[in-house]
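$ ./design --mode recover --in tokens.txt
reading tokens...
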């Protein structure tokens, strides 16, 4: 009996230690990434590369709650008028930069070939500061300050202002219902392959401390194929990439 109890205790303690090590490892990795990013932002990291960024209008333009952008982006075109039949768009008012729509068309055409689905709906693209102000105030009233600050940027600080960001949902044509895009089931293909077309998942769950925005599986950002491949393969967010290599 004592032998059985001893084995049970050993198993329990061993399991507890393994779980603790895993939790500490995850916490350490998150803290290390955050500390490295803070050092970089404050000029304590001098790593350089050959990447040159035009910070006025470029796929690697960084817009977040510390970097304001209020200029009018160039080459905005209608998604509705330029898209293929492999996906949907909310209405005729949604706009993106031309190069983004070209990449989006290629990605969604391949997604349809792989899955047979064409019900991904583009619900948001370019957003003016006036539109962002209305959205922010709407969420403040309906969801409160805490929720709004996690998911909605203040006007002037949203990368939707750039024309490089796109939000998806899923629209069920058979009954007219919609659901959030979560990157699950067949739609996981998009999350896994977006980098091949120059897109990244902009707000990963594990990078919320750095991006300042909670996990948004529906929000993708065009950064170009080269950057998207590097960011994805090295598990970075855009803040880390821009800070390290620009």
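writing sequence...
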């Amino acid at each position: 009996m004592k032998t059985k109890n001893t084995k049970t205790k050993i198993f329990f303690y061993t399991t507890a230690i393994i779980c603790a090590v895993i939790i500490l490892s995850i916490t350490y990795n998150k803290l290390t990434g955050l500390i490295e990013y803070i050092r970089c932002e404050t000029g304590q990291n001098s790593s350089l590369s050959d990447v040159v960024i035009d910070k006025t209008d470029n796929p690697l333009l960084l817009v977040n709650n510390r970097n304001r952008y209020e200029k009018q982006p160039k080459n905005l075109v209608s998604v509705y008028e330029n898209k293929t039949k492999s996906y949907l768009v909310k209405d005729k008012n949604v706009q993106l930069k031309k190069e983004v729509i070209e990449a989006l068309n290629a990605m969604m055409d391949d997604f349809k070939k792989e899955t047979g689905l064409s019900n991904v709906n583009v619900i948001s693209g370019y957003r003016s500061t006036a539109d962002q102000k209305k959205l922010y105030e709407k969420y403040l009233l309906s969801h409160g300050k805490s929720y709004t600050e996690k998911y909605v940027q203040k006007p002037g600080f949203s990368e939707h202002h750039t024309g490089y960001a796109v939000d998806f949902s899923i629209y069920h044509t058979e009954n007219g219902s919609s659901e959030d895009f979560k990157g699950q089931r067949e739609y996981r293909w998009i999350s896994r392959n977006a980098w091949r077309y120059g897109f990244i998942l902009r707000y990963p769950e594990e990078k919320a401390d750095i991006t300042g925005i909670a996990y948004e599986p529906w929000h993708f950002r065009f950064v170009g194929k080269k950057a998207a491949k590097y960011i994805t393969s090295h598990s970075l967010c855009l803040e880390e990439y821009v800070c390290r290599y620009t």
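exit 0
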